[in-house]
Amino acid sequence: MSVLEVKDLRKSFGKLEVLKGISFSLEKGDTISIIGSSGSGKTTLLRCLNFLETPNSGIISVNGEKLFDGADSASQRDSEIRKKRLHFGLVFQSFNLFPQYTALGNVKLASNLLAKERLDYQAHKKDIIAEIDENARGLLSQMGLADKIDLYPHQLSGGQQQRVAIARALALSPDVLCFDEPTSALDPELTGEVLKVILSLAEKYTTMVIVTHEMQFAREVSSQVLFMDKGVVAECGTPEEVFGNPKNERTKQFLERYSG
Predict the structure, then answer these.
(1) Are 221 and 33 spatial neighbours (Cβ–Cβ below 8 Å)?
(2) Average pLDDT for residues 69-79, to the nearest whole number?
(3) Which of 52, 76, 135, 160 gives 47 a disulfide partner, CB atoms 3.0 to 4.6 angstroms apart?
């Protein structure tokens, strides 16, 4: 069974149809990289998966459970949106860290808020807080930031901030970790440290959806590559198929322009 299955997903903004029937599936531990020109719908797709935008129609399923069904109004209730988001972690282009919290505070924030909603929170408050703190410290250590936990975002480099953002996205143990151009806001010399972290996650079989403009990185990290063009999936296959022997003419044109 696929961890993530997307069927005929559509999204319009007014008269502008941005997603025109996107379908793909993702197995547990696999990584799919989404490539394509600006305006092809890549970021809108990620925002729909994370319920930051509501699709007009289609189906999104995680572990066999329908999280969204355009034909079922019950799946679109605002009261359900927060629960659905917990299945996904999203790392933004520009970090989006809270400046008033330290690196550790940023990573713990969502877990602390959710913990307070637990029925057993008051009875086990100390244990729950200690568990959240231990998990957050472990994630920051995994990101190579064990010595930066008490620093605020403005005291960190761009690469360090993005690694804090990755730790924050992992803190709630999402089924699928999503990245929206994770290196686009970084200086070239900082890009490598973030890509190295993402590669290490792939080696640990973290299930990921990555929108990226780093073609060589996509080739290295991906189980599948999905090329989007004007709101549709123009081509999807293994990295060897898409990069080494693309069938679609638009894919060929995109890769030729990108490389040269």
Answers:
(1) yes
(2) 74
(3) 52
